[in-house]
Design goal:
The chain is mostly beta strands. It contains four helices and 31 strands. The chain folds into two domains: about 290 residues, Neuraminidase (6 Propeller), CATH 2.120.10; about 120 residues, Rossmann fold, CATH 3.40.50.10070. Belongs to the TolB family.
Length: about 425
């Protein structure tokens, strides 16, 4: 009974204290020794005043925290060219740089021209160059876009800097009462926007495949219910409000269905809800707790957490129903499974004797690779390019967000100046 209550608590009702309104600080706690040296020179600004966004600083921060690149501090630069004619590659070879990024920012009426060039220092050639015209509002996103272009050019993998994350915070309001907020921000934590707010808990945000909607659990009516909200308009629909538990929503790859946990028939089971006609299909029928469903990329299977074997472990079932297969056998506890976007691996919370860490399992070999040090790591979510994993962790006594590369070589903490943040989910 204690184990059953613990599983329900962790998967459906994680609550916390704290304030989460201040600026975000990103601390790289472990870097890759093989990171590629790159110099990102401050962009020349042909403007009457300062630009609203320091594009080079944003690009430098993006590339640094990816773990793939080691950026050169501005103070160590011998020169600061902004056009190809001013570039002397021998200076950058002397500084041990493999690549050089330069750029310019100039006015274009009420908009801005952003130009940048990327050089291979040792080959002595320009390997990329773009000119973009954007509004002041788009400058920061343009910087992330430049980071994505550079990252893909040099690694062969799509960048994820111009993406978003969702997470839940709580604020202590008047009279000591908590105010919960579901927020969406850039992948580096900037430009947070409140999507939903309530004096009762909000949890389990899940993105639609097109990134236009978020499903989440709210207790605003003193009992759990699942809502789907359109980000552009703020319109939301309550899609599940059955007797008992309504929890852990997850969109299907086509965005037409939700997998969810319901206990309307007794014990918590996995269901699939058709969002168009509201029909329900019950997938699991067990006296145990079945929860935390997540779809495979092809939509053919659903991984979920169950204690049907005595302890929480990951299982899989065809999304149309059928035979249940147990996936994990190593460890006292494996839960919160999420498929990678290529379907080759599953990230999870893995524990032995109460030490909760983030681990990735290869679906072909079933080999488990533990990536983090714990002891209270939870809620993992793959980046859209599968190179990083976002999760919730502890820094001292505070809950923070953290990220780790899939090989464990790069780790970082994302903490607000005060307060706590939980339940992260990386957008498509």
């Amino acid at each position: 009974m204690v184990l059953l209550r613990k599983l329900v608590l962790i998967s459906l009702c994680l609550l916390w204290n704290g304030v989460s309104q201040a600026a975000l600080t990103i601390e790289i706690t472990k870097g890759a020794e093989t990171a590629v040296p790159i110099a990102v020179v401050p962009f020349a600004e042909q403007l009457p005043g300062r630009a609203p966004v320091d594009i080079a600083a944003v690009v430098q921060a993006d590339l640094s925290r990816s773990g793939y690149f080691k950026t050169l501090p501005e103070r160590d630069m011998l020169t600061k060219p902004s056009d190809a004619a001013s570039v002397k590659l021998r200076n950058w070879r002397a500084l041990g740089q493999d690549y050089l990024l330069i750029g310019q920012l100039s006015p274009n009426g009420s908009r801005y021209n952003v130009q940048f060039q990327l050089f291979d220092v040792y080959q002595g050639v320009q390997i990329m160059g773009y000119r973009l015209t954007v509004s002041a509002y788009e400058l920061r996103r343009t910087a992330h876009h430049i980071s994505d272009l550079v990252f893909e050019k040099l690694t062969g993998k799509p960048g994820v800097f111009d993406t978003r994350i969702a997470y839940v915070t709580s604020v202590i309001g008047a009279g000591g009462k908590k105010q919960y907020k579901l927020q969406v921000a850039d992948a580096d934590g900037y430009s947070p926007k409140t999507i939903a707010a309530s004096s009762e808990p909000l949890m389990s945000p899940a993105w639609s495949p097109d990134g236009k909607k978020i499903a989440y659990v709210s207790f605003e009516r003193k009992r759990s219910a699942i809502y789907v909200q359109t980000l552009a308009t703020g319109q939301r629909n309550r899609v599940a409000s059955f007797r008992g538990i309504n929890g852990a929503p997850a969109f299907s790859p086509d965005g037409k269905r939700l997998a969810l946990t319901l206990s309307k028939d007794g014990s918590p089971d996995i269901y699939v809800l058709n969002l168009a006609n509201k029909s329900l299909q019950k997938l699991t029928k067990s006296y145990a707790i079945d929860t935390e469903p997540n779809w495979s990329p092809d939509g053919g299977n659903i991984v979920f957490t169950s204690n049907r074997g005595g302890k929480p472990q990951l299982y899989m079932i065809p999304s149309h129903g059928g035979r249940v297969t147990r996936l994990t056998f190593t460890g006292d506890y494996n839960a919160r499974g999420h498929f990678s976007h290529d379907g080759k691996s599953i990230v999870m919370v893995h524990a032995n004797r109460g030490d909760y860490r983030i681990a990735v399992m290869d679906m072909k070999t079933r080999t488990l690779n533990v990536l983090t040090a714990g002891p209270l790591d939870e809620s993992p979510s793959f980046a859209p390019n599968d190179t990083m994993i976002l999760y919730a962790s502890k820094k001292g006594n505070r809950s923070v967000l953290a990220a780790v590369s899939v090989d464990g070589r790069m780790q970082q903490k994302l903490a607000f100046e005060s307060g706590e943040v939980r339940e992260p989910a990386w957008a498509p």
